[in-house]
Design brief:
The complex is a heterodimer of chains A (about 150) and B (about 475).
Chain A (H helix, E strand, L loop, with lengths): L3 H11 L4 H21 L2 H24 L3 H4 L13 H23 L5 H21 L14
Helix pairs in contact in A: 1-2, 1-5, 2-3, 2-5, 3-6, 5-6
Chain B lengths: L4 H21 L5 H25 L2 H9 L5 H17 L15 H17 L19 H20 L1 H10 L4 H7 L4 H12 L15 H12 L13 H18 L8 H21 L15 H18 L9 H17 L6 E2 L3 E2 L5 H26 L8 E3 L5 H4 L3 H9 L2 E3 L2 H14 L19 H16 L1
Antiparallel strand pairs in B: 1-2, 3-4
Classes of the chains: A mainly alpha (about 150), B mainly alpha (about 475).
């Protein structure tokens, strides 16, 4: 069975630089974060729950602008959680978020209407916040909380 | 400071004691002062009678009068209020309300009227509920306790009648005026004494719903802690801010019952709050959260509860609905988690295996224990909110996340899985969420936790009552 890291690499490689690609990467990152929450100690789980919340919200922001995304995009997950190495799992999630951020940045240079522009700015904030949390030190992470 | 019902009643009692003391110790400076005192004294009597009708609605009073076995405290309280009404007159507003409060009696009357207004904010004009605490006075024992307290206040006030008559006469006010204002109110005092002498915990007739005295005390404490329905969020101190925000989240979670926003986002945010609340409370009490197996046995229920909320969040993440989330809940969630990270960090100064080394911050512990109880309430309401999402099923999952087992014998789900379209959430997903909510709706430290009971705490009768009351709220 492929590890999270391997699956994340494949996803990052194949996801397009468009709305669908961002949705797929955000979905995968959110599910992975949620899965990881269940197996890590509570000190890390609380912080990761905040990150999952941010990722969920970022995905929903995308769906408000493009309601058809959940139906059209591949809802891929990185597989069952592996509690052996949480750091590797964190890296895999961070990789997915970074890829989503890169595609968001690329999309910003396209022809967009105001609603799409606003959506991308919001999800950029949420993705940054989530990535910071995922990379945070266990139990001492400063979450979210780029939305002050 | 956000006022509470108990705080206002205590302020009224203090003011009455002050006024009684002052009138006993020294003469009035002038006839004007004496006249003002007489007016304020009557104003307070009027406020006491008025507050009785706040605690007992006209419909409830009619029921008491018509009942074969009414609660004796309520009968006595009604008699007291009606007798006071005959003395103070039926003109409204009372003349004492036309002037700024000068004497402590007037201040007491203002506190009492404010307490009545505070209770009124929990109901709409049709007496339907506007908050989850609107039903507090539906408990006859709590109502009787509150009426008894009011009678005590009346007895204290009437103790000063003779002294007040003496002081007013000393200023040269016409004796007829004094006699008209203070004709001898001992008959009211007798009625008030009758009210106070009755055992509030003991009903006049056997009733199935009669609870023990401790239940009445708990209900009275709940009544005393009652504040405004929508108090402002105090940001001057983090613990008060924490309490205010939890109160607001609780209200919004309750309001979702009748006004569902058709959103999983709010339910998910509440689940995140559940995780944070229980984990940070455990951390505050010294739980070591950095190792899965290093949990203090006494704090295990809290961590189990945090895990249950987390699993709930995990399940809810896969469900999709059309509505946006509640922005107020989200705002409060972010503020609360920030405060918790500061006041009750997950990694505290602990000694391995011996819990926390720093002394416990008791006000914070009190606030967080209240938050745990709040989350227990919220779990029950959220479960009902999910159940009440109307048909056609508005809860969906992406077709691609369906398992092979789930699509077996379900052509619609199989199609959704193949095409990637949204599919109605399988019943088992909703059942999983409901089952977790049922576990969470009991307090983690409640004795005989129904977590292991055959029926995990599902009180359908209670659910029906909650829904009915919320429906009344929405209908008005």
């Amino acid at each position: 069975m492929a590890t999270w890291d391997e699956t994340a690499k494949v996803l990052v490689e194949h996801a397009d630089a468009d709305w669908e690609g961002i949705w797929t990467l955000t979905y995968a990152a959110g599910r992975a974060t949620d899965d990881l929450c269940v197996v890590v100690p509570m000190a890390d789980a609380v912080e990761l729950t905040y990150a999952a919340m941010d990722l969920c919200q970022a995905r929903e922001e995308l769906e408000w602008v493009r309601p058809d995304l959940p139906a059209r995009c591949p809802a891929v997950t990185v597989g069952p959680p592996d509690p052996v190495d949480a750091d590797v799992a964190r890296d895999a999630i961070a990789r997915l978020i970074t890829a989503a951020l890169a595609r968001t940045e690329a999309l910003l240079s396209c022809d967009l209407d105001l609603a799409e522009l606003a959506c991308l700015t919001r999800i950029t904030t949420q993705l940054h916040s989530a990535r910071r949390t995922v990379h945070g030190t266990a139990g001492r992470a400063t979450t979210n909380r780029g939305r002050s | 400071v956000n006022a509470t019902y108990g705080g206002l009643l205590a302020a009224a009692a203090d003011a009455v004691a002050d006024a009684n003391l002052a009138v006993g110790r020294r003469r009035f400076d002038s006839q004007l002062d004496a006249a003002q005192a007489l007016v304020d004294y009557h104003g307070l009597l009027d406020a006491l009678a008025g507050h009785t009708w706040v605690l007992l609605t006209p419909e409830q009073a009619a029921g008491v009068r018509a009942s074969q076995g009414p609660h004796r405290v309520e009968v006595a309280a009604i008699a007291m209020a009606e007798t006071i009404g005959k003395v103070t007159g039926s003109g409204h507003p009372h003349p004492a309300l036309h002037t700024e409060p000068v004497t402590s009696w007037a201040r007491a009357a203002r506190c009492l009227r404010a307490a009545g207004d505070l209770l009124a904010t929990h109901h709409n004009p049709g007496h339907g509920p506007r908050s989850p605490d609107a039903d507090i006075l539906d408990d006859p024992d709590v109502r009787a306790g509150a009426l008894t307290r009011l009678a005590h206040l009346t007895v204290t006030l009437l103790d000063a009648e003779d002294t007040l008559a003496l002081r007013t006469l000393q200023t040269g006010l016409h004796p007829a005026t004094v006699r008209r204002a203070l004709p001898g109110l001992t008959h009211i005092a007798d009625l008030a004494c009758t009210t106070t002498s009755l055992d509030t915990a003991e009903p006049a007739a056997p009733r199935d719903a009669a609870g023990p005295a401790s239940d009445a005390a708990t209900g009275l404490a709940r009544l005393d802690n009652l504040g405004l329905v929508t108090p402002p969020i105090r940001t001057d101190h983090p613990i008060t801010e924490l309490t205010d925000r939890y109160t607001r989240v609780r209200l919004h979670a309750w309001q979702l019952l009748e006004n569902p926003d058709y959103s999983m986002t709010t339910l998910r945010d509440l689940a995140v709050l559940g995780v944070a609340t229980h984990a940070h409370t455990a951390a505050l009490h010294g739980a070591d959260l950095t190792h899965p197996d290093a949990t203090n046995r006494q704090l295990k229920p809290l961590l189990d509860r945090a895990r249950a909320w987390q699993e709930l969040h995990h399940t809810l993440t896969s469900l999709i609905t059309a509505g946006p989330g509640d922005v107020v809940v989200r705002e409060d969630l972010i503020a609360i988690t920030r405060i918790l990270q500061t006041l009750a960090p997950i990694t505290t100064a602990t000694t391995s295996g011996r819990g926390r080394t720093a002394p416990l911050d008791r006000p914070l512990a009190e606030a967080l224990n209240g938050a745990v109880a709040t989350m227990t309430d919220i779990a029950g309401w959220s479960s009902l909110t999910l159940d009440r999402l109307p048909p056609p099923p508005p809860v969906h999952v992406p077709g691609r996340v369906l398992t092979g087992e789930q699509v077996t014998d379900r052509p619609d789900l199989a199609t959704a899985r193949l095409t990637g379209h949204l599919a109605p959430a399988p019943d088992e997903n909703r059942r999983a969420v409901t089952a977790t909510y049922q576990t969470l709706r009991t307090h983690p430290f409640q004795p005989n936790s129904p977590a292991h009971a055959p029926d995990p705490g599902i009180d359908h009768a209670a659910d029906a009552r909650v829904i009915t009351r919320a429906a009344q709220s929405g209908a008005r």
